[in-house]
Design brief:
- With about 450 residues, the chain is an alpha+beta fold.
- It has two domains: about 5-215, no CATH class; about 245-440, endopeptidase fold (from Nostoc punctiforme) (Alpha-Beta Complex).
- It has helices at about 5-15, 20-35, 40-70, 70-75, 80-110, 110-115, 130-140, 140-155, 160-165, 170, 175-185, 190-230, 245-255, 290-295, 325, 340-355, 375-380, 405-410, 430-440; strands at about 260-265, 280-285, 310-315, 320-325, 330-335, 395, 400, 415-420, 430.
- A seven-stranded antiparallel sheet has the order 4-3-2-1-5-8-9. A two-stranded antiparallel sheet has the order 6-7.
- It is elongated and about 90 Å long.
- The protein starts with a helix and ends with a helix.
């Protein structure tokens, strides 16, 4: 069998089955009602889109190679080899287009789905506005015209292709060819309507996209500035952090993989703009010994290879794996521990690590997954853990979770244990009822 033929059949077999569309539509309707995709729905949608893009690339790459080999003169003269090549080309071009049109139909159910598909997703190598580009291409009149001409040629000259269709190689593709032919002749008006909808959406989204981009850069500039500024007269000049090396050593003996560590700088100017006493969150990944025991594998950045104890934390420079000495260079902290089995915990931490490398979200909009604020890392790590779900709150016109909202929901909805607090009333570590009293969060 032709190696390229095996590549084509494997790629076609890897496309998401028709059953996925029903689940994606169900998720889309839920997201439309809610106003955003939750992390589980987000993952399903991204996985399907990434799968489609991967197969699409293989199909189009194979199509380019086959078109180079195809001779229209030999085809018209009845060349069996060129007939097979033509049929493979027609099937690949049609399938890549039709699955793109299925995604277009999915996005039409809810605008929130379109926006989600257009987000960048570094984990899958998806660039921003990828879906809009796909939409534009699969509904382009020239693309549709070429496909229809090719299918009309095949239909009118089918008797010429009988030998190729009955060959052992093409028999397995025959049901797919028949299905694609029926689709392109049955959906002519629907394809035209999709193009009109694309034009309308394109006109609508431009001002929104420009506003979001301007807002993001404005918040990034102001957020970076605020993150670097300190409140005057809160600490004496040269006074260090209250979490000393000795305290870090004590915390290291207490921390376990999966712990959520909420932190605070006494003199940070950002304390004035964020709700509550606790402003920041980080996820503890464990020491090298703990990670090995849990089975958590990390491709560590060069600067953290000797660090041992690591955190996943989002700061103004993005979501990064950081050493303990950096994350705990603070004045106060508390530790929340999940009550989950090792298997569920490992799954959550592995999911969390897929977000490493993303940029910081200066807009604090948790509906977006291409950029993450500190609490968004925890949100996307533990959402759905043993059937528990976060509830996003409206804050300054956005859906988000402040650190104090995060603490409240982790304790009440997820059953996280408050392991202890340092630095609320004096520079000491407290546990149990005394820690709950100092937390002062219902």
């Amino acid at each position: 069998m032709n190696p390229l033929h095996r590549t084509i059949t494997s790629a076609l077999g890897a496309l998401p089955g028709h059953s996925w569309l029903a689940k994606m539509k169900e998720d889309s309707l839920k997201a439309k009602k809610r106003g955003y995709y939750d992390p589980d729905e987000d993952e399903r949608l991204r996985e399907v889109f990434a799968q489609y893009l991967s197969v699409r690339f293989v199909l189009l790459e194979s199509l380019e190679k086959l078109l180079f080999e195809l001779s229209w003169k030999r085809l018209m003269m009845g060349s069996l080899s060129d007939q097979k090549t033509f049929l493979r080309c027609l099937l690949m071009a049609s399938t890549a287009t039709r699955y793109g049109l299925d995604l277009v139909d999915l996005a039409r159910v809810a605008r929130v789905t379109w926006k989600k598909l257009d987000e960048a997703e570094p984990r899958f190598g998806i660039e921003r506005k990828t879906f809009t580009k796909i939409y534009q291409r699969v509904t382009h009149p020239h693309q549709q015209w070429r496909l229809r001409i090719a299918w009309k040629f095949f239909r009118s000259q089918r008797f010429r292709f009988q030998g190729a269709l009955e060959s052992s190689e093409m028999l397995e593709l025959l049901p797919l060819i028949e299905e694609e032919q029926e689709f392109f002749f049955r959906k002519k008006r629907l394809i035209l309507w999709r193009r009109i909808l694309y034009r309308l959406f394109s006109l609508h989204r431009r001002p929104y996209s420009s506003f979001r981009m301007v807002s993001f850069h404005l918040f990034r500039a102001s957020g970076s500035l605020i993150a670097d500024l300190k409140q005057p007269h809160v600490k004496a000049p040269g006074e260090g952090k209250r979490v000393t090396e000795e305290v870090k050593g004590e915390l290291l003996s207490i921390l376990e993989p999966g712990d959520v560590v909420i932190t605070r700088h006494d003199d940070a100017l950002s304390n004035l703009f964020l709700p509550g006493f606790w402003p920041h969150a980080a996820l503890y990944l464990g020491s090298s010994v703990q990670r090995e025991a849990l089975g958590l594998e990390i491709s560590e950045p060069e600067q953290t290879k000797e660090a041992g104890a690591l955190f996943l934390e989002s700061k103004k420079d993005g979501v990064k794996i950081r050493p303990l000495r950096e994350t705990l260079e603070v004045d106060a902290c508390l530790v929340l521990r999940p009550k989950a089995g090792e298997g569920a915990l490992l799954q959550c931490l592995e999911k969390a690590l897929t977000h490493a490398g993303k940029r910081y979200d200066f807009l604090f909009d948790f509906r977006q997954a291409d950029r993450l604020a500190c609490t968004a890392v925890i949100y996307r790590t533990y959402h759905g853990l043993e059937g528990a779900y976060f509830q996003l709150n409206h804050q300054s016109g956005r859906l988000a979770l402040s650190a104090e909202d995060l603490i409240r929901q982790l304790r009440s909805e997820f059953g996280f244990e408050l392991r202890g607090i340092f630095g609320v009333e004096g520079s000491k570590w407290v546990e149990g009822e005394l820690a709950c009293n100092q937390l002062n969060i219902n």
